[in-house]
Amino acid sequence: MLANLLDGHPQIAVYPSDLTLLYAYFPDFIRVHDDPSERRARLQRILFTDLEERFADLSGLPPLDVKALGDAFFAGLSDADLGNPPVLISRLMGSFQALSGRSPQVARRSALKETSIEIYAAEILNWFPEARFIQIMRDPRDNFSALAAGVDAHYSRLGEDRRQTLASLLHRARLGFAMAVHNRKAFGPERYHLLRFEDLAGDTEGALRAVADFLEIEFDPCLLTPTVLGLPTRGNNYDGETKFSVDARNVGRWRERITPEEAQVIEFHMREEMAEFGYAPAFTPAEQAAAAADFYKWQNYAYFYGDRFAGKADA
To answer: Whole-prediction pTM value?
Structure first.
């Protein structure tokens, strides 16, 4: 959502999709695929074929020539640089800026969205010393509510059920919160900006004025309308909503969308992280502990237990 809000600003060139390089290519894929042709095919798939498919899902012809983008990216790319993250990122963004008309002379900053950005922050600063980061924080109970809404629509097709989605959230959200605390301290507020989703949804203009100050760009009313390549875009949710604006409707609605036991598990595992960012618990420590113990019984059997009794006949 934040990338979509920044998209229309004339001083920013926003890449129109997740970068994907830092989990779909680096580090594991190239660790086991050292053949240049395999690496090039993988880059084509995750960067350009995927982008074409995303645009096709949005409707009609894409407002960007994705084939030309790929051709510009690969032109002159040496095999030696196929394992070089800053080179690939710079080429991708440079090619995009040239084709979209948002050259460095026009756009003060370029913006990239990546799911794992807080985990790679130290490495990215090493690659790009002038980089700045904005990390969105959200009440993990509302976060799980959004994910739970997508279990039937999306995650079930990936083999996940509701309990697996909760286990994934506990691992990933705790890591994200911990990295937020660490990165803010390590890099300072002038480099690392934390933004609560609730604040963005509740006072969109105020939050985006703070973001504009952080990025050293002028505030523009276009920041209040989400777009992709300048075209209005609806929110990213699994509830079928098609609003073309920031929507605070689901803030604090976790009580209606998930079970008390699921919320109790989250509060037990993330009580310190939640307190750090102002998310108050709704249940007692005893209720949290009981739910966490029950959840662990399933988690232990599903993930950690090796059934040494399987296949053995009773005596």
So the answer is: 0.88
